[in-house]
Design a protein that fits this description.
- The structure is a homodimer.
- With about 240 residues, chain A is α+β, with helices and mostly antiparallel strands.
- Chain A has three helices and ten strands, in the order E-E-E-E-H-E-E-H-H-E-E-E-E.
- The first copy, chain A, has one domain (about 50-235).
- The radius of gyration of chain A is 17 Å and the shape is globular.
- The interface of A and B includes residues 85 and 95 of A.
- Chains A, B: Pfam families: DUF1989.
- Chains A, B: This is Urea carboxylase-associated family protein.
Chain lengths: ~240, ~240
Amino acid sequence: MSPTRASAGAAPYRAAQPDGSNPTADNPIAPDGTPQLDRDYLIPARQGRAVRLKRGQRLTITNPQGHQVCDFFAITANSPAEFLSMEHCRTALGRIFVKSGDRLVTNRRRPLIEIAEDSSPGVHDILIAACDHTRYQQLGCTDYHDNCADNFRMSLAAIGETPRHVPCPFNIWMNIPVAKDGTYDWAAPVSKPGDYVVLRALEDCIAIMSACPQDMTSVNGVGTVPAELVVKVGE
Amino acid sequence: MSPTRASAGAAPYRAAQPDGSNPTADNPIAPDGTPQLDRDYLIPARQGRAVRLKRGQRLTITNPQGHQVCDFFAITANSPAEFLSMEHCRTALGRIFVKSGDRLVTNRRRPLIEIAEDSSPGVHDILIAACDHTRYQQLGCTDYHDNCADNFRMSLAAIGETPRHVPCPFNIWMNIPVAKDGTYDWAAPVSKPGDYVVLRALEDCIAIMSACPQDMTSVNGVGTVPAELVVKVGE
């Protein structure tokens, strides 16, 4: 497989692995996704990982390079039909962005994830769909391109779970400034190397994270390549 | 069943039927949802209806009172897993609102519905989740309240279809002005009596419409009660 890019002058597309495949489905953090506490888990560039969280546990997502977006999803432990839902969050919050202290809700309007800490300037997105195969085709890619929708599916497949659909993600560090006229830009993150977000699970759930492989817009920085993330679970 | 409202001074809640039940599931426009062309179908206040559309057909939704919001959904004819998706529309459009001429896309980023005509000032919403049982409980309702999520499910049940989940709707005539700081208001519609929107099906699909029963915020007008809609399908 040899993914190619149509963007004139862009750096050659680099897949998660040299052969163009993405090993997310074969690399769970543990067979059932249960983490060892206080252990750092790497999410390699362009890949995803699913992590089971118990109520009250804190998930720290660190951005070593500072410019990397994390597409974040969560589904409740006992029902794949209940998931973190951005349209319900917007309704609950009364705004189209999140900030530290917010309690993010599911499609059943139950609080599931709290933004407990945020070392970054707090610029995140709750408006934009996860990138997927079609998105890259529309951007000019002519072969497979790693994408957050497949990372979501593969991360769950890796721990034996099958999602019903791909919800709209909470795009941590993604910078989508909305103008007064309702248009928006695909801007570079304003986070810095080492920034982290701490999310607290308000119910038992599965957190799914994708180190967004987007390299055909500026959402993972300008002059940079998609990078890794590090996650850790603590009490 | 006797739905009640907690809002001080608000008019008593009036359900779709005097006994508090909602007859949407028992009143399809036809057993399989296929419309007679150029015939007006009433969507009574607080109820929903599903209508099968063939590629190229035009669906006219009329707002007789002018202040009534229509929660609009669409799923493709052959796959309940493919549906009109607001987060994918925002990505495709580059803005957080729609306008006449827009082609709205599915979760697979395929154009499904075109806004062919709009007699109203064009103020619609693509940010807010469908109202549901929990929403009304959170607003202070202590018993069942008609809601767009149940209308969506019942409209499809009425024609023998079972959805996987309730997608974020295209809220026609719903006025959610977003301020520069990202907060928004629940404002009254700016549409006028008799306003209509014409939607063209770009693929065979099922359109699902709910005459939004919201009477605990201002989205269906101030000093008004939820009203009916009229739909018609033509070539």
